[in-house]
Design the sequence.
């Protein structure tokens, strides 16, 4: 894929994310829930000639195979900078705008805005901090979360391998 004909030059600094990633090891934990291993497919696709990358995450229970969480959105790159924004929507009724920077093969994002539907039963999320990094051909993901009831702490951790087409 060449940036000159298929995607905007600004997203080339995130080209290491492009494609589909399958969880090797994934765990969700938080003081208000039982720790759980889960499966996940994470996809990043550059938008044609725009400084955007579409992303989608689908997680499922490893034994029951039922969907747990779905998240869709965009990574928007500020051209000629290392600044990246995540615009995300979650299936349980939450949206987020997070911003951060990409340095080499690490993307770090911190929420600037978190909104939820009035009828979401989960405790309100106050802050999210995400890190995605490429280490020895594996994608590593870490998410920290703060709610109105809990301080900022680890919520999700996952290692992925690139899924071959």
Sequence:
């Amino acid at each position: 894929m060449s940036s000159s004909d298929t995607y905007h030059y600004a997203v080339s600094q995130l080209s290491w994310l492009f494609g589909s990633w399958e969880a090797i090891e994934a765990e969700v934990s938080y003081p208000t829930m039982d720790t759980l291993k889960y499966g996940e497919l994470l996809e990043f696709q550059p938008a044609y000639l725009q400084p955007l990358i579409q992303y989608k995450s689908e997680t499922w229970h490893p034994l029951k195979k039922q969907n747990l969480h779905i998240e869709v959105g965009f990574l928007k790159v500020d051209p000629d900078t290392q600044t990246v924004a995540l615009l995300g929507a979650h299936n349980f009724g939450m949206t987020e705008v997070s911003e951060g920077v990409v340095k080499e093969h690490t993307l770090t994002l911190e929420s600037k805005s978190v909104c939820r539907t009035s009828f979401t039963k989960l405790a309100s999320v106050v802050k999210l901090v995400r890190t995605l990094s490429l280490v020895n051909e594996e994608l590593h993901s870490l998410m920290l979360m703060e709610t109105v009831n809990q301080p900022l702490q680890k919520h999700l951790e996952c290692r992925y391998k690139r899924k071959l087409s």
